[in-house]
TrEMBL record:
Residues 1-447 form the Major facilitator superfamily (MFS) profile domain. CDD domains: MFS_OFA_like. It is found in: Cell membrane. PANTHER family: MAJOR FACILITATOR SUPERFAMILY (MFS) PROFILE DOMAIN-CONTAINING PROTEIN-RELATED, MONOCARBOXYLATE TRANSPORTER. Keywords: Membrane, Transmembrane, Transmembrane helix. This is MFS family permease. InterPro entries: MFS, MFS_dom, MFS_trans_sf, Proton-linked_MCT. The chain crosses the membrane at residues 20-37, 57-78, 85-105, 111-133, 145-165, 185-213, 252-270, 290-312, 324-341, 347-372, 384-403, 423-442. It is a multi-pass membrane protein. It holds the Pfam family MFS_1. The keyword Transmembrane applies.
Length: 463
């Protein structure tokens, strides 16, 4: 059984099309991308456990923390054992996380939700997130930005499927819940049944991805690919840096800061998306935006997240990784200011501003593996990527904490207005400025950090 999961069993035969690999990545990333749809049932959990937004929001934050930690801890294992074994392990953890969380909801034990969705599900998130990335970079050495965009696009689009599906399933499991009524809240039992359903469905999809994934042979290269063209670019190296050495370079920590700032700014909106749009357009104590429309907004953000991961990362193949991050962070500052100061003037304007911000958020995720490949080479890029995702863990705490702490101080859920969000949004402007300055400081990695070619050649062949 274990032999079926080994890297040796999934080496592609001659003539195999690399375009068959993205569907395997999408099967995993569309499943674990459900984490971005948590705002749809957030109010239901607050009511069910009779607690605060901050305490329920911690479930999401914990999952993101575990994502980063597990990606950092198991990144080298994923590189060594291959994507199939990693995808299977991710599927088992992600699915079991839903089932344990469902038990916690049914039993009225919030700590079980933390353990299930937060810890077990978070481990599945981390391993599942990095499992196809290094494989696609190897299949697309000529277009690494496009490759990582394809790999991570599905993660951003997961909520596009999960958000409306969750609303319909909760209405199915709770006859008293009406997703078109802004004041309607689903029962805890409906959320528990939803978690069981999602856990089983996602298990099947992720195992399908593991079944069809392949890795290229050691001597494979795409037709017409000329590595010398990439070597001529200023920020692209033809050398290799190990994962253990990479974390001792200033470039790693500058890029860590860039990712942390970009994610912190975006994740706060995503985690609060559904109630946020209702609060921005509240008149006389009631919102003009229904719960169903708010769920649709979450879906729109998911589309923007997914599209940004593909469009902006592909664009980075043309303009370079450093310039595209200048756009993410610099233009992001202007957009956050506009959202904080004028976002409540028009629903169309609000959705447009939030959509572009989230497209930059998604683009940052999809571009960073290619940025790492440019700076550190392909030798252990998967393991380096895993370590860098600890920035996501930190941002997963910081982003929701900033938003939820400000909102808890302003008033109760369901009674907040647009002005209550302004301090948090302006704080995000400062965060983006820090990231912009960190990206400005990134330079090529010094030669003293490069690995001898003999070592990289040997370890690549051993893998």
């Amino acid at each position: 059984m274990l032999d079926v999961l080994s890297r040796e069993r999934i080496v592609a035969r001659p003539g195999y099309s690399r375009w068959l690999i993205p569907p395997a990545a999408l099967a995993v990333h569309l499943s674990i991308g459900q984490v971005y749809a948590t705002s749809v049932y957030k109010s239901a959990l607050v009511q069910h456990f009779d607690t605060t937004l901050t305490q329920v929001g911690f479930v999401f934050s914990l999952a993101i923390v575990m994502l980063g930690l597990s990606a950092a801890l198991f990144g080298t294992w994923v590189d060594r054992n291959g994507p199939r074994a990693a995808m299977v392990v991710a599927a088992l953890f992600w699915s079991s996380g839903f089932l344990v969380a469902a038990l916690g909801i049914s039993a009225g034990q919030l700590w079980l939700v933390y353990l299930g969705y937060g810890v077990l599900g978070g481990i599945g998130l981390g391993i599942g997130y990095i499992s196809p990335v290094s494989t696609l970079i190897k299949w697309f050495p000529d277009r690494p930005g496009l490759a990582t965009g394809m790999a991570i696009m599905g993660f951003g689009g997961g909520a596009m499927v999960a958000s409306p599906a969750s609303g319909r399933l909760m209405a199915l499991y709770d006859s008293g819940y009406d997703s078109s009524d802004p004041g309607s809240v689903a029962s805890g039992g409906a959320v528990a049944a939803l978690f069981v359903t999602l856990g089983l469905v996602y298990l099947a999809f992720m195992l399908f991805g593991a079944l069809i994934v392949r890795v290229p042979a050691d001597d494979w290269a795409p037709e017409g690919y000329d590595p010398s063209e990439k070597k001529q670019q200023k920020m692209v190296t033809d050398a290799s840096v190990s994962a253990n050495t990479a974390i001792r370079t200033p470039q790693f920590w500058l890029l860590w800061t860039v990712l942390f700032c970009n994610v912190t700014a975006g994740i706060g909106i995503l985690e609060q998306a559904s109630p946020m749009i209702q609060d921005f357009f509240r008149e006389g104590g009631s919102s003009t935006v229904s719960a169903a429309a708010a769920g649709g907004f979450v879906g729109v953000l998911s589309i923007c997240n997914m599209a940004g991961r593909f469009v902006w990362s592909s664009t980075s193949d043309k303009v370079g990784r450093k310039p595209i991050y200048m756009v993410y962070l610099g233009v992001g500052v202007a957009l956050y200011l506009a959202l904080a100061l004028g976002g409540s003037g028009s629903i169309v304007l609000f959705v447009a501003l939030a959509g572009v911000i989230i497209s930059f958020y998604g683009g940052g995720f999809a571009t960073v593996p290619a940025y790492l490949r440019d700076l550190f080479g392909t030798f252990q890029v998967g393991a380096i990527h895993g370590r860098l995702l600890t920035a996501w863990s930190a941002a997963g705490v910081a982003g929701p904490l900033i938003i939820n702490a400000f909102l808890d101080a302003q008033g109760e859920p369901g009674k907040l207005v647009s002005g209550d969000y302004r301090p948090a949004l302006l704080t995000m402007v400062g965060v983006l400025v820090v990231g912009f300055l960190a990206n400005l400081a990134i330079r090529p990695v010094a030669e003293k950090y490069h690995e001898p070619e003999t070592r990289t050649d040997k370890e690549t062949s051993d893998a």
